[in-house]
Design goal:
heterodimer, A: about 500 residues, alpha/beta, Rossmann fold, 6-stranded mixed β-sheet, globular, B: about 325 residues, mainly alpha, ABC transporter involved in vitamin B12 uptake, BtuC, 14 helices
Chain lengths: ~500, ~325
């Protein structure tokens, strides 16, 4: 149907925030019934574009046409009525209400007399919607009892409950297991077969090549290219995204492993993991991987004293654990960068300066009294050293992009030589260019003689970076694979991750 | 672009200086409306003295509220620590006045600190809301105050004690200038302001209130921090209790009714967020002065007592609304 107008036509879309031009005359088309991937580094303008489409930001200049008709999107409700459905990375569900109530939130069928909710009709309607979309989620269940993947399905069902022509998925895969991801892909395919256009934002190139029909690259607020996926080569896409060639996705590291610095013996935490034992040597990167819920993050937290354990031992150099608190672990030489930077890492409304010095406040204090001058200088130096890009040391941490927030966390911890550095999903939500920088940082930390415990669910990253790989399944460490030559196969890891014993 | 950033700079100054500006406006209005009576030295000193007792406690309460907590027991603690101190001083009448009064002061402050530490320990150790824990402490402390003195105020204390409550530290040609409780308040103000904004401990207090889990994972001793802020507040309630004894020359188990709410009002009017993570001791000082100025000028204007309460409630509401509006502006940057 070459004569059909495009589903979305962005024409010279421009948006300026104080001090930044977030979008600069961006123009491209999204075809009906296609998966259109949107890639770009953090701060490239993807979120801004999506938010304009969803009515969360007002358009600054240019125009948007939907199915050939120019539209001026006023607000989120207007965007919905135009058939634009958006599923953000952070869910907007009420945990203590049922799935049906969430799907039709504020639009519940009411009885005439007392305006009470007609639950039978509500559940019936939601049930029919979910059947039609082939979503396998019990509609009467409370949202709080669902898995993350199921909650995402509910979000998608909710988004599509108002006849949507366009579905925007913002980093939908970050929280999914491979199995759940496959289910999401099948759902997306079913939707495009019915003519829905899907705008798909992801940092993971594998997914984009597996799913997308077209791909658009944005960089620094500008449109770089829009092409059918069949015309795009992986390396070329990376170069376009970051604006320069990356020598290697996974920089190499000289193997200079020293003596054992961390020994974990029979560590258990009831309900999370059981009898986990491994050791780590100085200068080594040890990856702990497994499916979501396999207990890998819990092990990391337990080593850091942030999760109470029910048995076993942790030894760091001379210090004997398990540590009763993160503070004790820190004193013994363990650093920890949590997975969820917003919830577990940053003081979002506080200045960057305070965030960076938080774990080493006494370093810029005399007898407990802080020197703000010294603190500002120290924070500024660390921002330069770790390439944290922000207007000053005094801006609120919330204003930074994901990659810069992660760098701020690095700046917080890498102020002293720690014996063990634990990083939980260090590259989640971080773009390709920043990922490589993070890997280079990892190599530098290892070169300084620290042992690195990296928790990751991205297998290419695990195989590309780790010297040894521990694989967990349902709270047990199923096996440790030697990856000195970076030659462990994804299949070998997955077999352990789903519980098949190693041979 | 520079225009925009200059505008936001002005905006930020306005946001930062809103409290002093409101206070100044109020003082001017009070002076004009009372034909200058408000601005007379005696009256100003009077306002400061009235503010000082609850002000001393409000600085500690600021720390508690910045951690995201609340302490409802302070009013009762003023009564209990006052009675404890009075009993201690009565029992040591044969000592030298200085020794006896110091002993009373020590007993009062220690009692407050211990009960504050108890509340703090429970709040920190178990996940019970501070509202409930300190509500229980409020009831128990009030009851204990009455039990300790059989419901009768403890009189006949050293006459030297009066200096603490009604004396002056500086008498110049202009007259008697700085009442002792006001000096105490200013010292406590300076100490807590430095504690919150310029110490390693204070940073921990802010971090705990801003994001408790992040604070814990940054190696901050969250439980100890919480315990300490309640301990400090309890000790300051004890200090206020002894000063109040000195003002009345008696330990009275009925005093301090509703003080907890007046103290919280001063903190909130001063711009500290009840959600934690954001607040300042200087704001609290100004908040206390705003409330003190209002009370005093309404008295001078002979506004009926009941109407004073209505006005005060309105001011607290207005302050919160203004604060909420400004915060939204702040976020939109």
């Amino acid at each position: 149907m070459p004569n059909d107008p495009p589903r979305i036509r962005f024409r010279d879309v421009t948006k300026t925030f104080p001090g930044v031009r977030a979008l600069d005359e961006v123009s491209f088309d999204v075809q009906p019934g296609c998966v259109h991937a949107l890639v770009g580094e953090n701060g490239a303008g993807k979120s801004t574009l999506v938010k304009i489409l969803a009515g969360a930001h007002a358009i600054g200049g240019g125009s948007i046409e939907l199915d050939g008709r120019p539209v001026r999107i006023r607000d989120a409700r207007h965007a919905q009525s135009l058939g634009v459905a958006t599923v953000y990375q952070e869910f907007n569900l009420v945990p203590d209400l049922s799935v049906s109530e969430n799907v039709y939130l504020g639009r519940w069928p009411r009885s005439r007399l007392l305006r009470t909710i007609r639950f039978p009709e509500l559940h019936d309607r939601a049930g029919r919607l979910f059947d039609e979309l082939e979503l396998d989620v019990p509609v009467r269940a409370l949202v709080s009892t669902l898995s993350v993947a199921q909650q995402q399905m509910v979000e998608i069902g909710k988004a599509l409950s108002l006849d949507a022509r366009i579905l925007v998925l913002d980093e939908p895969s970050a929280v999914l297991t491979p199995h759940e991801l496959a289910a999401l892909f099948r759902l997306v395919r079913r939707l495009t077969n019915r003519g829905v256009s899907v705008l798909y934002i992801s940092h993971r190139l594998d997914e984009i090549f597996a799913l997308a029909d077209h791909v658009t690259v944005l960089r620094d607020g500008r449109h770089i290219s829009t092409r059918p996926i069949s015309d795009v080569h992986r390396d070329a896409l990376i170069i376009e995204t970051v604006g320069r060639s990356l020598d290697q996705e996974f920089p190499t590291r000289e193997d200079r492993r020293g003596g054992v610095v961390l020994r974990v013996e029979g560590l258990s935490a009831r309900g999370a993991f059981d009898e986990v034992s491994f050791d780590m040597r100085a200068g080594e990167v040890f990856a702990l991987t497994g499916l979501v819920g396999s207990g890998r993050s819990s092990v990391a937290k337990a080593v850091f004293g942030a999760l109470p354990v029910t048995g076993g031992r942790v030894l760091v150099d001379g210090a004997k654990g398990p540590f009763p608190s993160p503070r004790a672990a820190q004193r013994a030489g363990v650093a920890f960068l949590p997975e969820d930077r917003k919830r577990e890492g940053l003081l979002l409304e506080r200045p960057l300066r305070e965030n960076i010095t938080l774990a080493h406040r006494s370093d810029v204090a005399t007898l407990g009294f802080m020197s703000v001058t010294r603190e500002r200088r120290a924070a500024g130096d660390l921002m330069v050293k770790h390439d944290v890009r922000a207007a000053s040391t005094e801006v609120a941490a919330a204003t930074l992009s994901g990659g810069n927030q992660q760098k701020a966390m690095l700046a917080r911890w890498l102020q002293r030589p720690y014996r063990v550095v634990i990083l939980d999903e260090p590259t989640r939500g971080v773009d390709v260019g920043a990922k490589v920088e993070m890997y280079e940082k990892l190599n530098a930390i290892a070169a300084d003689g620290a042992a690195i415990l990296m928790i990751s669910s991205e297998l290419p990253e695990v195989i590309g970076m780790a010297d040894r790989i521990g694989v967990m399944c349902e709270g047990r460490l199923m096996g440790i694979l030697d990856n000195t030559n970076r030659d462990v196969s994804q299949e070998a890891i997955l077999r352990l991750a789903v519980g098949e014993a190693s041979t | 672009m520079t225009g925009e950033s200059r505008l936001s700079q002005t905006m930020q100054w306005l946001i930062a200086l809103r409290m002093p500006v409101i206070l100044l406006a109020l003082v001017v209005a009070a002076t004009v409306l009372t034909d200058g009576k408000f601005a007379q030295l005696d009256n100003v000193i009077n306002v400061l003295r009235q503010v000082s007792f609850e002000g001393i406690i409000a600085f500690g309460m600021t720390l508690v509220i910045v951690t995201g907590g609340i302490d409802l027991s302070v009013g009762s603690l003023v009564a209990l620590t006052g009675v404890v101190a009075a009993v201690a001083m009565r029992g040591t009448l044969d000592w030298s006045p200085a020794a006896s009064i110091s002993f009373g002061l020590l007993c009062g402050v220690m009692t407050g600190a211990i009960i504050g530490a108890g509340s703090g320990a429970i709040v920190a150790r178990f996940s019970i809301p501070p509202f409930i824990v300190t509500l229980a402490a409020m009831l128990m402390a009030r009851g204990a105050a009455f039990i300790l003195c059989d419901g009768q105020p403890v009189y006949e204390l050293h006459t030297d004690l009066l200096w603490l409550g009604r004396g002056f530290v500086w008498e110049s040609a202009l007259g008697k200038l700085i009442p002792v409780p006001v000096l105490v308040m200013l010292v406590i103000y300076a100490a807590t302001a430095i504690l919150l904004s310029r110490t390693v401990f204070g940073r921990g207090v802010i971090a705990v209130g801003s994001n408790e889990e992040a604070a814990r994972l940054a190696g901050i001793a969250v439980r100890r921090t919480k315990l300490m802020v309640y301990l400090i507040t309890g000790a300051l309630a004890g200090l206020a209790g002894v000063l109040h004894d000195a003002k009345l020359m008696a330990g009275d188990p009925k005093v301090g009714e509703m003080w907890e709410l007046n103290v919280i009002a001063a903190v909130v009017v001063g711009g500290t967020s009840l959600f934690g993570g954001r607040g300042s001791v200087t704001g609290t000082l100004i908040g206390a002065l705003i409330i003190g100025t209002l009370n005093n000028s309404l008295n001078l204007l002979q506004v009926e007592h009941f109407w004073q309460k209505v006005v005060l409630g309105g001011v607290i509401l207005a302050a919160s609304l203004v604060d909420a509006g400004l915060r939204r502006l702040d976020w939109r940057r």
